[in-house]
């Protein structure tokens, strides 16, 4: 491999960064200036690539406090899926995956709150010639956040309803409860955690069964097994008699 081959490979790697920079900034700066900056980034793309990957890494870390959370969430999903396979639930595997993926994605998006207005939110207002681009972008972001919170609430309700249905037919209720609570803890969804803990507490109180052993040895004791007194039913029906003696309507 000679110098020409190395130069071609180097410029081929820098071309995507130059195109990306041009498309992101073509409306913010002078056209001739943006061309010069694009050529410069195309020729010396290593510092720009390093900054680009660092910013992307920081953006991804804003979703999870713990970098191992993504792996733990995936393992919990698979364990709940195995419980679903063993149970006789009416929910299919595909519906379960859709419910969990939607809840997971919306929860992550809700946590990743934007610190500032990004250029893509301003783009539509620049094209339409809006007089206050910054203010309009802030209002658009606020509306999008409200919609995100609304859809996240619906996704959480679907997730909780699925866990409640699976809990009723699951043979390993303790394991399912621990996995579900751990899942929402990793997502830092305190409302879902409270709802799950309340659900499992109520079911643990109502699902207790009294087991009676050796019934054949439990002999009748007249002093112990006295039947409860029952008030006799009156055979007099004054109300019916009075109703029967009412004059008939014409």
Strand and helix layout:
Layout lengths: L2 H23 L5 H13 L2 H16 L7 H18 L6 H19 L7 H9 L5 H37 L3 H14 L3 H17 L31 H7 L6
Helix pairs in contact: 1-2, 4-5, 4-8, 5-7, 6-7, 7-9, 8-9
Structure characterization notes:
The protein is about 70% helix and about 0% strand. The protein has 10 helices and no strands. It is elongated and about 70 Å long. It folds into 2 domains: about 1-60, no CATH class; about 65-205, no CATH class. It has helices at about 5-25, 30-45, 45-60, 70-85, 95-110, 120-125, 135-170, 175-185, 190-205, 240-245. The termini are far apart.
What structural keywords apply?
0% strand, 250 residues, mainly alpha
- Main beta-sheet strand count, sense and barrel state: none
Rounded to an integer in angstroms, the radius of gyration calculated over CA atoms is: 34 Å
Helix proportion range: 55-70%
Helix/strand class = mainly alpha
How many domain regions? 2
